[in-house]
Design goal:
heterotrimer, A mainly alpha (314), B mainly alpha (301), C alpha/beta (310), A: mainly alpha, MetI-like fold, B: MetI-like fold, 11 helices, 72% helix, binds iron/sulfur cluster
């Protein structure tokens, strides 16, 4: 990694921090204009308790002051306390959940890229044959079927399917905690995007295999495998990489739904339950986490570019 | 010696055939679209769903909300072709009603997002400078945040009515359109006829509406078409998470979510709305692909 | 549509044969078909004989061993002919490693000498560079190094200088000539530049509409072109003694559309010397001199005062 790249990465990290603070501030201010929060139900019980609670969460202060306190906390990595479960510190909670979400997300990204590149490459080198036709059509179908539909189909297939086929030997329920429980949700999450990657790869490959340098590679007498992998796919990857950014955002979006369906204790699940129970401290926290995750993912993508394409320098 | 065709003649012929025929551009695209089998199939499927949606507003086999029409979880039968759900409601009726919501949200959100994106994109691309900087910054910040979360918060903030849902989806969906229109505007405004119009003092609004918008229309239509299925999926996400249009409205996402707990014993409850949803989205994507190829044949690969 | 039809010629070791003609006359297609590299949707039918072997009958492994090893090719545009994401040295090494002539270690060791041989300064350092860090001339040198690295029997250079800056063209030509002598390889130089042919080639083959219309020793062809097309090509060539007041006389009419070739002699729509027979019968490639062949019913030697006719 060159010096320029390091400087670039450092600048981007600063930018990510700024974005995270800005985004969470917007959410903070937006949410504090709302009437009511998780504590509202306490009001009926006892005015004294309520006052004590409000004080505990600094909610008795005017919101600009609350904001300053909150930013101060954030600077120390402290996102405050859950409004619903008093005493639960948000930062360690979300860090734990982020580990789960990132594991799931990475598995999904791997599936996306693996399946997408393979299908796209095969379709391109077999252009206008039935293989291409099947691959291209299934790509459109693939991304037209949303992740949660894939989830239902895969659950039907694996949970009861495997149980029936193996005569009750294999029974793997959905959930989280065991390695065997990762592939199915990751597949559901990754398949729609795999289809998009496949489509892009095919188009990009078709462009590349007509290039002069690929003709040179054939003329050198290289093996077909070498021409396709080293001289075509590698170059074809460069435009494909550019969708990894939106793809990561998409996978995060999808993971909210997938975590909900599979009962996976990740950030997405936390977000949904917090927003329903109006635990706004957690909502803001998850938002901040996601902004950072997306920023880091985009940074990673930008750092892959110069590795694939030496013409790009930062 | 007999005369041979000279280069001059030939090149004149070449020029004539290369002259753009503005008027028939739309017809041309339409002809190409009609030749695209998948696009036509998509169009037919969309038409069927639209008619179904319209019918469902005045008539469905059973009221979509009526419960206990028979045994709960009952599979498909003659009386109930798609079976009954966990409350004994007729699934076919609810899938029909869901079509109205899906298409309403899809088309409505696509329209609203497109309008926002077109206006902001044209402003950014045409005036450049500070306006562009501000709009582009907004776009970039929004891109750094998962749109579903923003929509979820918005729905909590403004409530879960049909229009609010459309609004929440549109508010996160305009980014792509704005980017596209901005790029188009930036390139079109440099063309000679725009320069010419500007030198003779044509008002900006006129330049935007007479020259820039019509020339960017092709890609805009394609993008707007793709926005419809995206919005439909989005609505399904919201409903699935319990933050969509409130019950008893029969949203496909909600139906799937309600049927989920009985997925193993009565998969038809989940599969029926999922199939309808996927088919609609697929049809719109086919149409969008067809439109893209028809409007800009060069993009075809 | 036929791009190429019934081409046949010999090249000896150490000899440079020029193949000339306007663009679209099938020069490049001939070369590509010899390596079975005709781009989709092109198809080669019939036979392509290289010595005794039919290139079309070779198995995938045989053709792979043939390409780059027996016959190597240098392409027109060095800017696009090298893979932009792989190091120059590696691309040359890979050309050698693909064949059995050298072991992997030998291939690696030969990269620097090869680059030195094509006169790339500081070759040791430059093998680590990527193509975009090379100038156009340097890239073409590297392409030549790649082409000759396996010491092929036949080297095909397709317009090797057209895409280059005028200032470096001469040095590339010189390099090609020296390399072909050193390696004693047969070289086919595809070009539309008659001046280049005059300075480099021992023999010339003139192509029109996918056919050979004239062939023979360079001197003979330049002195006594027999086919009207060759004659016009030479006439349109800017003369050395007239540099400065460059008169670019292009041949009148347009190059033939390979989709709808005329009957008879394919050149007749553009020929000023045609006779009735030219419209119906295609002339054979016939001997006009012991070493010179031409495909014409009339032949320039039978035209008195050609300049006056028009
Ligand atoms: S055969 Fe006739 S038409 Fe053809 S080149 Fe000779 S003179 Fe011209």
């Amino acid at each position: 990694m060159s010096r320029g790249t390091l400087v670039y990465a450092a600048q981007r990290l600063v930018l990510i921090t700024v974005t995270a603070v800005v985004v969470s501030s917007i959410v903070f201010i937006g949410i504090h204009q709302l009437p009511g929060n998780a504590l509202a139900s306490e009001r009926r019980n006892n005015p004294a308790t309520e006052a004590a609670l409000l004080h505990h969460y600094n909610l008795d202060l005017p919101w600009p002051q609350q904001y300053v306190l909150w930013v101060q906390g954030l600077a120390h990595g402290d996102m405050g306390e859950s409004l619903v479960n008093m005493g639960v510190q948000i930062t360690p909670l979300l860090l734990r959940e982020a580990r789960v979400s990132v594991t799931l997300g990475l598995a999904a990204v791997l599936i996306t890229i693996g399946v997408g590149l393979t299908l796209g490459t095969i379709a391109a080198i077999r252009q206008n044959t039935w293989v291409d036709y099947v691959a291209s059509t299934s790509a459109v179908v693939g991304y037209s079927v949303p992740s949660f539909v894939w989830a239902f189909l895969l659950i039907l297939l694996t949970v009861s399917g495997f149980y029936a086929w193996t005569g009750g030997l294999v029974y793997e329920n959905i959930g989280w905690g065991k390695i065997e429980q990762i592939p199915v949700p990751a597949l559901a999450l990754g398949l729609p995007y795999a289809a998009i990657v496949a489509r892009l790869t095919r188009a990009s490959m078709l462009e590349v295999i007509r290039q002069d340098y690929v003709r040179t590679a054939w003329a050198k007498g290289l093996k077909a495998r070498v021409v396709i992998l080293r001289h075509s796919l590698r170059n074809a990857l460069i435009p494909v990489i550019s969708i990894l950014g939106p793809l990561v955002t998409g996978i995060i979006t999808g993971s909210v739904v997938i975590e909900y369906i599979f009962g996976i204790p990740g950030l997405g699940q936390e977000f949904v339950s917090s927003i329903l129970s109006r635990d706004y401290n957690i909502v803001i926290g998850v938002f901040t986490f996601y902004a950072v995750l997306i920023g880091l993912a985009n940074l990673a993508v930008d750092l892959i570019y110069p590795v694939l394409d030496p013409r790009i320098r930062y | 010696m007999a005369a041979v065709p000279s280069t001059v003649e030939a090149s004149q012929e070449f020029l004539i055939s290369e002259l753009p025929e503005q008027s028939s551009l739309g017809q041309d695209a339409w002809r190409r679209l009609k030749r695209n089998r998948l696009a036509v199939v998509g169009l037919v499927i969309i038409a069927i769903f639209f008619v179904t949606a319209l019918i469902s507003i005045v008539w469905t086999p059973y009221p979509t909300w009526r419960q206990a029409l028979g045994t709960t979880y009952a599979g498909p039968s003659l009386l109930h072709p798609l079976g009954l759900d966990d409350y004994g409601r007729d699934i076919l009726s609810r899938v029909m009603g869901g079509a109205a919501i899906a298409l309403g949200v899809g088309v409505g959100a696509s329209f609203l997002a497109s309008l926002t994106g077109i206006i902001l994109g044209m402003l950014a691309g045409f005036f450049k400078g500070k306006v562009d900087a501000l709009i582009s910054l907004t776009i970039n910040i929004f891109y750094g945040v998962p749109d579903l979360l923003v929509a979820l918060i918005l729905v909590v903030l403004i409530g879960r009515g049909l229009f609010n849902i459309i609004l929440a989806i549109a508010l996160t969906g305009w980014l792509g359109m704005a980017r596209l229109v901005r790029g188009q505007t930036l390139s079109i405004r440099e063309r000679e006829y725009v320069e010419a119009a500007r030198t003779i003092g044509t008002p900006n609004l006129m330049i935007l509406s007479r020259h820039i918008l019509p020339n960017a229309l092709g890609p805009i239509i394609v993008q707007a078409t793709y926005l419809v299925p995206a919005a439909i999926i989005f609505e399904a996400f919201l409903s699935l998470l319990g933050l969509g249009i409130p019950p008893p409205s029969p949203s496909w996402g909600r139906m799937a979510s309600e049927g989920y707990k009985a997925l193993q014993i009565a998969p038809h409850i989940v599969l029926a709305p999922c199939a309808a949803l996927s088919l609609t989205v697929l049809a719109f994507n086919w149409l969008g692909d067809g439109l893209r190829d028809a409007i800009d044949p060069r993009m075809r690969r | 549509m036929r791009a190429v039809d019934g081409i046949s010629f010999d090249v000896d070791r150490g000899e440079i044969v020029g193949v000339v003609g306007e663009s679209g006359s099938g020069k490049t297609m001939t070369a590509l078909s010899l390596l079975r590299l005709v781009p989709e949707p092109g198809k080669i039918t019939g036979r392509i004989l290289y010595g005794e072997n039919d290139v079309l009958e070779m198995t995938d492994d045989e053709i792979r061993e043939f390409r780059g090893n027996e016959v190597a090719m240098i392409f027109q545009d060095p800017m696009t002919s090298m893979n932009p994401v792989l190091r120059v040295g590696f691309q040359i090494e890979e050309a050698m490693a693909a064949h059995r002539r050298f072991t992997g270690q030998q291939a690696r060791d030969r990269v620097v000498p090869m680059l030195q041989r094509v006169r790339i300064p500081a070759a040791k350092e430059r093998i680590k560079d990527f193509p975009h860090q090379f100038s156009g001339g340097m890239r073409q040198r590297a392409m030549i190094a790649m082409g000759v690295s396996n010491e092929p029997s036949l080297l095909i250079a397709d317009e090797p200088t057209t895409a280059l800056d005028v200032t470096v063209q001469a040095s590339i030509i010189e390099l090609l000539r020296d390399i072909s002598r050193e390696l004693r390889a047969a070289v086919i130089l595809i070009t539309h530049n008659m001046a280049l042919v005059a300075s480099l080639c021992n023999r010339v083959i003139v192509m029109y509409a996918g056919r050979i219309v004239e062939q023979g020793p360079t001197r003979a062809i330049f002195k006594n072109p027999q086919h009207p097309y060759t004659w016009s090509l030479l006439r349109s060539m800017p003369r050395m003694d007239e540099v400065g007041k460059e008169r670019l006389v292009s041949i009148r009419g347009v190059p033939p559309d390979l989709g709808k070739l005329p009957t008879g002699c394919k050149f007749h729509p553009r020929c000023r010397f045609k006779v009735d027979r030219c419209l119906t019968e295609e002339p054979p490639l016939a001997e006009v001199d012991p070493e010179q062949l031409a495909r014409c019913w009339v032949l320039m030697k039978n035209v008195p005062n050609p300049e006056m006719q028009s």
